[in-house]
Amino acid sequence: DALLNAAVAKAEGLTHIFIACRSDALGDWVDTAIYKVPGKSYLIERRVPLYSSAWEHGGPIIEREKIDVCLTPSPNQYEVRAYHKWLARAFKHAPLRPTQKQINAASVWRNGPTPLHAAMSAYIASKFGKEVELPCHKANKYPQSRPTRARVIAL
Question: CA-CA distance, 72 to 70, in Å (whole number)?
Answer without folding.
Answer: 6
